[in-house]
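Deliverable D5.2: sample structural annotation.
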Amino acid sequence: MADTHFNPESLRERFVMPSRLRNISFGLMGIGLVLLVMGYFLASGDSNASHNDESHGTEEHAALKTPATADVYQVADDDLLEEHHEGHHHEPGMPLREIGLSQRVLGNFLLCGMYFFLFGTGAFFFIIIHKIGNAGWHIALHRVAEAVSMYLPIGAIVFAILLFFLPDLYDWAYVEATGTPDKLIELKAGWLNTAFFVGRTVVFVGAWILVAMLIRRWSIAQDDDPGNALGYFKKQGVAASIGLVFFAISFCLFTVDWIKSLEPHWFSTIFGVLQFGRSMVSTMVVLYFITAYLKSLGYLKAVNKSHFHDIGGYTFGFTIFWSYIWVAQYLLIWYSNIPEEGFYYVKRYRVEDSMYLGGNFNFFFYGNIILNFLVPFLALVAPIVKRNIKYYLPVGILLLYGHWHDLYQQIMPGAVGRSWDIGLIELGMWMTFAGIFIFTVFTSLTKANLFALNHPYMQESAHHNTGEIYREFDVAEA
């Protein structure tokens, strides 16, 4: 049950990052970089060995280009079919670019960059939607969400770097840079061109960072200026209202640009919504874990099991939402059976097709159902799991891996084709980004009081209670 004797002074607490946590974050970065370099050189050696043996596999390579696979990539418009890859012979559905080790590294850089960046966008949405809804229950962990949203400026650096390597990673940028004929891509050149792509990215990400930092600044200002607390509260509401309308449109376009355009021949009108679902599931897990960690250190005295229950409830709800959108996208494409839509799934689970032999993305495709829906749904339906960290922990870890797993199978087939792998490069890249994320978020937590003092709904959050019915499930301290 919530403590009924909170006052502003009792809620004044500043987080001091433990040296152990700082060492863990730096250790992850250091070990991750070492593994990344080792993986690169080991993979480079393997690539050279494979290159020397290429002459022995020419017949095998030719078999992958048999006409039997042509029907997989047929398009409905006969005129477009004749012109589609005129003058450029390549395997249907495979990248137009030459694929090497650099594409694998860039693909992983995009994968991890997007994975952790979506935590920041999810926290940003969590903040603005509760501001607009005048919610009060979440104020006890509002500063945690703010700290996660402060990863946005750091995460944006990844996309700034990748802008210099677009032709190495995206077929549409390769076609633009080299003049390689591809009519389907040329028809989308009004949207998929480098100048417009760069401009959209700068505007979208820049606007999110601006709104997030304004809300953060005004939120902190409430702590030290109680006389103007209501004015700062209203300013945050205005910024959140504008930010939400812009975010709803820009987020979908951003994920279409950076993830979906890896498959520039594919069509889907629900892709951005799917990414939003993944972002929110993962973000709820991150908020739960950080809040529970701070609670274990003696901080966040106003946070109780009801707050954990609501974050767990969000996790459960967005898990169902993500699953619904995932199935909806798949079923509509499967039922309509339009080739320019269906090939996206063909190369992710039809490994018996000769041109996809050796891809084995079916492990990632079918794993989604178990990792991101079946297990978390059955676990989170129980209130005891949502309210207690010892039960929520394994489910949360599974979901964090599951959505990395899903993002991998969305990015890698378009980025590297069948030249994917799971090894030191992937592990090292993830560890490096994890270390940066942990250090950034917990450093941000040290910059302000952990509870939003002088907030109009401060007491409502401090006394938050989901109801007497859940008392029986409070069998362990969070």
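Annotation notes: The two ends are 12 Å apart (CA to CA). Residues 19-52 form the longest helix (34 residues).
The annotation will be released with the project's public dataset once the embargo ends.
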